[in-house]
Model the fold of this input.
Amino acid sequence: MKSHKKSKQAQSPFRLAIRRFIKNKLALAGIIVLALITLGAIFAPLLTEHDPTYGDLLKIEKAPTDEHLLGTDGSGRDNFARLLYGARISLIVGFSAMLFTLVIGVVLGALAGYYGGKVDNLIMRLADLILAIPFLVLALTIIALLEKVTITIFVTVIAVTTWPSLTRIVRGTFLSLREQEFVLGARAIGASDLRIIFKHFIPNAIGPIIVNATLMMASMIIIESALSFIGMGIPQPTPTWGNMISEAQNIRILRNHPEAWIPPGLGILLTVLAINFIGDGLRDAFDPKSNRR
Amino acid sequence: MTNLVQNKGTEDKLLDVHHIKKYFPIKGGILKRTVAHLKAVDDVSFSVFKGETLGIVGESGSGKSTLGRVILRLLDPTEGEIYFNGDEISKLKQRQVRSYRRDMQMVFQDPFGSLNSKMSVAELIEEPLLVQTNLSRQERKERAIKIMEKVGLRADDRLKYPHEFSGGQRQRISIARALIINPQLVICDEPVSALDVSIQAQVLNLMKDLQDEFSLTYLFIAHDLSVVKHISDRIAVMYLGRIVEIAPKRALYDNALHPYTQGLLASIPIIDTDDTKQERKKTRITGDLPSPVNPPTGCPFRTRCPLAHERCSVERPELKSPENDEHLVACHLYT
Done:
């Protein structure tokens, strides 16, 4: 550890973490896979000329051809186009739900952990309340009560029902930081609450926050697919991986057209696996002690 | 020095502490009601004069760190007044206290926990300027480099991070951080007790040099008398949240009055040559510090005092001077 290279570059803890992360092969593979999937989603219009929502009723449940690489679905829509555009939805839902949850979770967790007392009690009892109801039941109830489910609403529902776990982590980290002498030191020089939170607490809590946010994104993608699979997620004809797999509920398609549901299934599997590898890599990078097996 | 201290009038008092108490409530039961109080600091009064070093000595749990934090208003006192430069600061709101923190700074004990590991040395040292002044980036940098050289750090170390330094160097960073805004009073909370003995002397000498250069006033907290001997002008001995003896350094080392102080002095290891052989009143301190939640009645030290008599368990001894105004002791043996 003390092998100082005489480089100009200062060894900031963050930079050290990034360096450890890049050395992790599994995490790097995760980044590459996720990058490829993201590129496919972004450049979907260049990779296929089909409209994922346009159904050609003369071509229902066709086997793969040169024109339709993965065949067509029950409404005559091109499966390959749906796979690419579905990646967009899955990634957008996963990412924005994660971001939304991150904002709620970090803000509430920071308030609870920093101020303690009544603020803490109020926030944590609310979190307990939400955690006491099984996630699926809660999400399904809210969705069932809504008339129309758009992506924005869907993301909001996921964020509102999943923030407690992140809030607990942030709160716990803040509580332990509060007892540290450097926080007292910051107060002793006259730093304001805001400065202490942003300059002293968050940089020290960033590791667990990033790691959990990453892992959370993976579970958000699974949640989206699961809800779409049972028809309570993003409604048709918007393509999502979950929507595509729900076609496999039909035994005929399940048996005769594996090309219709295996690719989106693999898509979910690979994306979630990649993100989880990245998350694990980040954890090891930010907390090298957890790596000693 | 002794004469100087004696002749100082009230206008030379930088810090004046009157009957400070800090009780921590202990909550229990389902309703979280306060069931008892931990009396960390129990009725402490003293003054610190401009330019001097007052050493505060006591074993762990004697309330000396709490006292330091209360003076800096990192903790709110339960009772009592604190005058800084004649201004009453114990009742101020936290927001108002912030401006006083330009003049009062603290050096902490733990060189590893007291620096934010995610900030570079430059950020750490410049932070007080950023918080307290409107200096430009360039001015902050110049002042940081200047103070770094003063405390014996190299200016090229600016961009390094705390984990790249040893304990002694980190403590130099802490000192630079405390001194960069030219405070009048620096509260040093056991600044060297986590360091190797060889480094301790270095840091103490540095602190003494800086005191002369910047005419600083120190409140120097330590847990044994050997460390404060080097740096203090006067020394206060704390026991269970109270000051039991306060005196100029010479008077305390040569003529300790309180049995507890005598015991502390006897516990300093010395090399016994014929020249240095001192006649020490051998008072052995045995047992542990009683609980500050439920302190002994009367004199707090009576449970461990070899000279305790009946009166000690009934009446709490006042801090009084048996000889002269500057040597005070709280013990019934002298009244």
